[in-house]
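Recap from last week: sequence in, structure out.
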Amino acid sequence: GLDAQASAALNDLYQGREVGEDRMARMLCLFRLDFVEPGAMRAEVSGRPVYLAMAMDEHQRLKLKPQNLLLNLPLARLS
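Predicted structure tokens:
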């Protein structure tokens, strides 16, 4: 996720846990990122889609750190 609320919801979905309607209603956007070059991804996630999301908290606020977009992408290290 691109923020704490979205990360928590995506983690629960990934783990197969139910995410309540109230939390899903706060989801502002959900994107699927597919890499054209799977070799550019870390080996443990290569070939799998990457989901990006943003969600507001229970007070309808969005706390977004733009660097999360770049720092959390599963990119492979260049050798």
